[in-house]
Design a protein that fits this description.
alpha+beta; Pnp Oxidase, Chain A; eight-stranded antiparallel beta sheet; about 20% helix
Length: about 160
């Protein structure tokens, strides 16, 4: 007996889809960051402040004392869930889950630009942004699942995000 065919539920990616996804990323102030625990290999997730660099890639600030820092040093694969639910059904709201490889921002010119972008979104971070244990990280996207609401889901590539 043949298995029933599954309907492809993903929508066609358009220029409007790409622009809306970039707008969500660039407009968000926080994200859930998922990494792999170096001791167990299990996924772990935490909320982080979010900004974007000059190319629109997600950047975040992290203390070297955090478990996620050790996780990214051990295995830079990560994902971010961006988008805030409102009232009612949380699955009805726009969100994007980006998978990729995280890299610490080490170039001083690049770090200065990222710092400025981060401070523009998070002015209160001026209290700790220059502490020695804090460093900036960038998520270099490889793919993203973008959901606009029920029945409207897209699979985006890094080139779809134009970053």
């Amino acid at each position: 007996m043949a298995e029933p065919q599954k309907k492809d539920l993903l929508q066609e990616v358009t220029d409007e889809t790409r622009a809306d996804a970039r707008k969500l990323i660039e407009g968000s102030r926080s994200a859930s960051l998922a990494t792999l625990d170096p001791g167990t290999g299990h996924p772990m997730c935490s909320r982080t402040g979010l900004a974007t660099d000059q190319q629109g890639r997600p950047v975040f600030l992290m203390s070297s004392l955090s478990g996620h820092h050790a996780a990214l040093v051990s295995d830079p694969r990560a994902s971010m869930l961006i988008g805030e639910p409102g009232s009612g059904d949380p699955l009805a709201y726009e969100r994007i889950s980006i998978s990729g490889v995280a890299a610490q921002v080490v170039d001083e010119t690049d770090r200065a630009a990222v710092r400025e972008a981060y401070l523009a979104k998070h002015p209160k971070s001026k209290l700790y942004i220059d502490f020695k244990d804090f460093t900036f990280w960038r998520l270099n996207p490889e793919r993203a699942g973008y959901v606009v609401g029920f029945g409207k889901a897209y699979l985006l590539s890094a080139s779809d995000l134009d970053i």
